[in-house]
Amino acid sequence: MSKPFPSGRPVNTAPERLRRVEGKHNALVRELRGAFAKVEPTEAGDGAIEGLRIVEEAIRSGLRFRAVFFRESAANLAERLLPQIGAHVETVLLPDKLFASAVPSETPQGVAALVHYRQSSLEDVFSRIEVGPVVAVAGLQDPGNLGTILRSAEAFGAAGVLLGEGTVSPFNAKVVRGSAGSIFRLPVVRVKLTETMAQLRERGVRLIATSSHKGTPLPEANLASPVAVMIGGEGVGVPRDLMAKVDEVVAIPHAGQVESLNAGVAASIVLYEVRRQRS
């Protein structure tokens, strides 16, 4: 149930449901600012999102909203979004400067929200192994790349995404935006990859790692059976200790003058090939 709304005055220039809040110490504003600063959701699964498309994706994905915030100069967005948001959700109008102080985006679109993320477990991923490949990410720091991987993982029917040590938070605002909403629907779990690789193998899952040049050419690899695709970090790739534990290394054929593909592109190509073979 939503908490009582802090005191504020009705706004005449925006939909009646909006309340204008001007104080930077307002409880909801502080909660929004803190959620963006913390990045990881609270133990209850609450976190912050921003941007029109992402808020609409959260609505479409059935996430539960705690509050929605509109920048005063973008109050027209409320007319588009309020009919899609439950009547019990707090809806707030903030002066532009106050909104900018709470929302970290360099190019804010004028709407942000506090939402309750679905929390997934390793068993959620294991239960979907027959549906599609598992994606395991090791030490990836670029939020744009991780967002692309999440988006491609959902697009090509992945069972879920496992995030190993040293990987950027999937709730980073740039990751959420890059995922185009896939983070709201796809099982994403933080794990210790060494332990999880053993659990995957026990379930009959073959462990595949990607490499820039060395390995089985991707079109020749057998990816029709249950597989987990390991994607490494920028520059260093999959760590050596994990690479030593995989069943096969695959390489994506590409022009020799190109040193490597970035992690998001490489993962997308491999996931497409897995989907193609399994189809």
Describe this structure in words.
With 279 residues, the protein is of the alpha/beta class. It folds into two domains: 108 residues, Ribosomal protein L30/S12 (60s Ribosomal Protein L30, Chain: A, 2-Layer Sandwich); 157 residues, SPOUT methyltransferase, trefoil knot domain (Alpha/beta knot). It is built from ten helices and 13 strands. The strands form two sheets. It has a seven-stranded parallel sheet. The longest helix has 16 residues. It is elongated, with a radius of gyration of 21 Å. The chain starts with 8 loop residues before the first strand and ends with a helix. 41% of the residues are buried.
CATH topology of the largest domain: Alpha/beta knot
Strand order of the largest sheet: 9-8-7-12-10-13-11
Largest sheet: 7 strands, parallel
Tell me the count of domains. 2
First CA to last CA: what distance? 44 Å
Helix percent reads: 25-40%
Q: Brief description of this entry?
A:
The protein has 279 residues and is an alpha/beta fold. It folds into two domains: 9-116, Ribosomal protein L30/S12 (60s Ribosomal Protein L30, Chain: A, 2-Layer Sandwich), CATH 3.30.1330.30; 122-278, Alpha/beta knot (3-Layer(aba) Sandwich), CATH 3.40.1280.10.
